[in-house]
Protein 1
Amino acid sequence: MTTADAAHPRFAEALRTLGLDELNGRIRRFPDATRTAAEAAAAVGCELGQICKSLIFAADGVPVLVLMDGASRVDVELVRRELGAEKVTRAKAEVVRETTGYAIGGVPPFGHRTRTRVLADRALLDHDIVWAAAGDPHTVFPLAPKDLVAHAGATLVDVRERTA
């Protein structure tokens, strides 16, 4: 694991723009991919719920970012209702890259190519620190959830699947 020059260049620039340069020194790069929440949690050595997944959905064809803890799944019906959309589906890989500038598995919670609406599931706030992708499938960074939500410009919502 290394930290030097760990951030994706676009994400490093986003951190500078947001005045978060100090986060560059906290980014961790791993030799093996941390593409899934389980891989990221194992690499970091944290609970699955402390991973922040950045997931792109299409709401009536318009991309929307949903930030979700790694132990939960997004309930697309709740997202649909929250947005007042007719139909919500997972975005295709090319839409994710076109919208964010990053590949699936490395999408950070902010610093995207285009401005999208952002929803953050309230369960993220259950943790002191969460880890999110830093622009590629090998990098993650830690941040307090309330700060992550603020920098992402997210609206706090309850959109996780309820388990019976």
Protein 2
Amino acid sequence: MDRTVIAYVIYLAVSIGLTVWVARTLSRNGRVFLSDVLHGNEKLADAVNHLLVVGFYLVNLGFVALYLSDDDTIADTRGIFEALSTKLGVVLLVLGVMHLANVFVLNKIRRRGLMEREQLPPVPPQGWVAPTGV
């Protein structure tokens, strides 16, 4: 088997495994934020969470597929490690950026929900006070 093909197989296995692991972690822990933002509506939180995970998979796996090809041929075992370190390093950076973007968006949504809750008075007004003249 060609060394380039070996590098491709290892690259795909590791990058797909990392993508699945990060997506599951985001899904499991992001659901708590979504539930809080959506005022305990568990069904809606699950649906939004699932949509976010699907989008995460599409973007990351699409990037992994596009980044697969390489014009250089790998001549030795050292070349395999060099090619893999470059490709997997970029995939890890993209996964990290996607993770931070997801956390940022979830936090922004959560903050908006907290601000909306603070705008409501704790008790309804019970009467009016006439303005005093100055």
Protein 3
Amino acid sequence: MPLSISTLCVLCCFPLLAAVSEYHIQLKDHLFFPSRITIPANQKVKLIIENQDNTPEEFDSFSLNREKVIFANQKATLFIGPLQPGEYSFFGEYNPNTARGAVIVERQKLEVPDAH
């Protein structure tokens, strides 16, 4: 029996409806908190950066191929990935000596059910 158009759309679009994981970083006193975040490999994620300083900062990462100005007391959203396992550094372009961090990408560990 052939599938209806609406059923086919739901089946094809279902992966697009899956929630994207969010990760939060704060920028305060020209430092990123946390300075290192760990995300799963091979998945697109949402990175929300909140600038709590009274000055703007530019989130910059050559390895992530991203740059975004975050105005004072504002938030910015970046989507990164899917990425291969590894370490991807980032920095604040206006304060590169202090505002530094990294995204650590790890393969997800498979949980083995307890046999008890």
Protein 4
Amino acid sequence: MATLFYGSDTDPIVLPDRLMGYIKVITSTKLRRGESFTLTWTGTADEAGRSTIWLQPSIPLRFVFDAVEPEQLAGDYLRSLADQANAASGLVIDARTWEAAEGASHAAAARPARTAGRPVRAA
């Protein structure tokens, strides 16, 4: 499990390494650009309900991962989370269902796109 230490709070946010990897990439990108946003998470064993933090460049963050090597992230799922982080609601993660959403996003990207009209054959 990975931990995120936020500001002066001594209680870290604890999430799976791969999920925290997605959050780290999105957070790093947005904060590097000077963009603030909210991060909301639900479904953790330690916390009931929903928690939200406001992420901005002036608040210190520290990500700590159990794994030595970085997790392999799915680009299509990363893009969908980044789009969500750009929305007014911010980035919303459900720790119980994120793996299914990651898998569905990856499967959808792997399917060939359908084109309108009749099929075209190469000569």
